[in-house]
Amino acid sequence: MILLLSAVAQENTRLRAELHQTQTYTCGTLEYHRGILGAHNVAIATTGIGTANAAGSSALLLHQLNPAAVIVCGCGGAYHSSALTVGDLALASAEIYADTGAITPDGFLSMQALNLPLLKRGDTLYYNRFPVCTGLNAHAALHLKRFAAHSGISFCEGNFVSVATCSGTDTQAAAVEAATAGICENMEGAAIAQMCCMFDTPFVEVRAISNMVETRNMACWDLAGAMQRAQEALLFWLRHAPAKIFTSQEF
Questions:
Q1: Secondary structure of residue 49 in the 3-state scheme
Q2: Burial class (CB in 10 A: 0-12, 13-18, 19+), 56
Q3: Mean pLDDT (whole number) for 242-247
Q4: How many domains does the chain have?
Q5: CB 75 within 8 A of CB 208
Q6: Which of 21, 127, 198, 249 is the most exposed place for a label (fewest CB within 10 A)?
Q7: Can you name the residues that pair with 4 across neighbouring β-strands?
Q8: Domain residues for 219?
Q9: What is the spatial distance between Cα 161 and Cα 140, in angstroms, rounded to a whole number?
């Protein structure tokens, strides 16, 4: 079973509409939907906005459902050096907590600089950066590139950046981008990636660009369009993905 997660319900409305044999369940106070999507048995849930909601919701579902993989689908902001624009498509090569650490007179210190790991898994320590599943990512990238080409948009794979406070000025956007080499900013991905790391579950994240990360001007945003496009891209990938590719992956 594949667990599909989004921050808000609008980011999975199309996915839920494509489900067959749909059943609705609860996990604690969290509602999720199970059914068949193409060749795949899936569960779809809305985590809520922000890292606390994302971590709590994903941990509950990972514990109860033990999925073969987790895919995050939603929208995000693009940093200017990514060459992405509104409507384009991005795939995470890693998830990074941008603002988890300490502010000092000499600047920001990451958790690694503070020598305070957020997670220990075996002999590996994880600080601000959490991995994606390279096997699934390679397969996703192949088909998402095809989707982008068919749709007349750009596709980019790179670091995703999770923040507690969105970068709403050019100065802050430039600072976060320089520190992380990020291509896409969001508020949930790193927390879900961390929980997947804790549960040894393969993780993938697909987002469409709703806005540029710059001085905030919502007149230039397209949240609805980005939410729709991310779901269309994910559906395209899943239609071309054999079920065995998810069951054969390791974290």
A1: coil
A2: middle
A3: 90
A4: 1
A5: yes
A6: 21
A7: 44, 71
A8: 2-244
A9: 19
